[in-house]
Design a protein that fits this description.
The chain is α/β, with parallel strands linked by helices. Helix content is 34%, strand content 7%. A 5-stranded parallel sheet has the order 2-1-3-4-5, sandwiched between helices. Strands 6-7 form a two-stranded antiparallel ribbon.
């Protein structure tokens, strides 16, 4: 009887082991259902408006001049994406809309093509379209000035494509617009003698026009709009050259501050559909970081001096004399300079600025990093 009891215990132990083994095999044969990773929200297209901060070739190529210099060497010299050749961009390489496109559309993307390259009956590029033109302003140009499409005119160009169904209404679903303005044309007449009332009036008109542009784009069906604040005018080389590129000019920065305060207040009621990109703070902190700022680690060696410099009055980067000799000096390491020419950041500066803005842009658009 004792032996039988022992045998029964052994029998039940063996059964228990076999049942567990079978359960283990079955669990491996039928794994728990896989939960797919949440899909990244897809945004269809990017539409770009503005001036030389956003232009990728809308300023038509003509004989070498101040306005057409983006088509000539040394512009594009750092742009490996375009074989280090000039493309009509105003810088040594990629610019703001190129980096916005990488955030929104994917790492291998760049700014949508220029509107000037759009054939009337052709379908719009799958990435969108760029309407920005160097030398344009937010306000209409005064009579007698060179006629360049204003912000309102650029937006009406998009509206016309929509009306003639070159762009379909669904193309605007889940699309993003960028208003990339430096507003140099609108504020170029401001000087130290300009009264505070005149400056306030001008700022009101410029910011009203930008906010109206956002409204028009939203009414057309564009879901989200990114809007540049003005960069700090007083830190740009066209202002700092008078003090031998040693510090920012406070008067110039006052213009930017007044404009940006107005714009922030006026866009405040539309925070769900418009995001103000604070170039003013980022540019200032990268050029003149405050004590203890984490941005001091990213400080450029050359903060006020442009990589491409022409000290001749009314001279410009890329200018040649009658014999074809350069009338400008060119640095050998643009990545160590914040400014490329008298107004525009280098490719390296844009890359760092947009990296600092990336998280804010992704949160606003409801997308994740690639």
């Amino acid at each position: 009887m004792v032996r039988l009891a022992v045998d029964m215990k052994v029998f039940f132990a063996i059964c228990f082991i076999l049942l567990n083994a079978c359960a283990h095999v079955e669990s491996r044969s039928h794994p728990a259902p896989h939960r797919p990773e949440p899909r990244r929200r897809e945004l269809n297209k990017l539409f770009v408006f503005g001036d030389s901060f956003g232009d990728v070739g809308n300023r038509q190529k003509s004989a070498r001049s101040l306005t057409s210099r983006g088509w000539y060497y040394p512009y594009g010299k750092s742009d490996e994406a375009h074989d280090n050749l000039p493309t009509g961009r105003y810088g040594d390489g990629l610019i703001e809309p190129d980096y916005i496109a990488k955030i929104i559309l994917g790492p291998g993307k760049q700014s949508p093509p220029a509107y000037m390259d759009q054939e009337q009956d052709d379908d719009v590029d799958s990435t969108g379209l760029n309407f920005a033109v160097a030398g344009s302003g937010v306000l209409e140009v005064p009579e007698g000035d060179e006629e360049v499409p204003s912000l309102d005119t650029q937006i009406r160009q998009l509206s016309r494509l929509l009306r003639y169904r070159v762009i379909q209404k669904q193309d605007l679903h889940d699309s993003v617009a960028l208003i990339a303005v430096s507003a140099g044309r609108d504020y170029r007449a401001v000087e130290e003698a300009t009264s505070s009332d005149d400056l306030a009036d001008l700022s009101d008109r410029v910011t009203d026009a930008i906010v109206d542009g956002v409204r028009q784009l939203r009414e057309m069906g564009v879901e989200k709009v990114l809007v540049n604040s003005l960069p700090p005018f007083g830190c740009a080389p066209w202002q700092t050259y008078v003090n031998n590129y040693t510090h920012c000019d406070s008067v110039g920065n006052t213009v930017s501050s007044i404009h940006n305060a107005n714009l922030k207040q006026k866009l405040g009621d539309d925070a769900e559909s418009a995001l103000l990109l604070d170039l003013d703070t980022l540019f200032t902190n990268l050029v003149e970081p405050k004590d203890g700022s984490t941005l001091s680690q990213r400080q450029f060696k050359h903060k006020y001096t442009p990589c491409c410099d022409n000290k001749r009055e009314n001279g410009y980067c890329g200018e040649l004399d009658r014999r074809g000799n350069p009338m400008y000096t060119l640095c050998s390491n643009p990545d160590k300079y914040f400014f490329w020419d008298y107004m525009h950041p280098t490719q390296e500066a844009w890359k760092i600025v947009m990296r600092l803005l990336q998280g804010q842009i992704e949160e606003f658009l409801g997308i994740s990093s690639w």
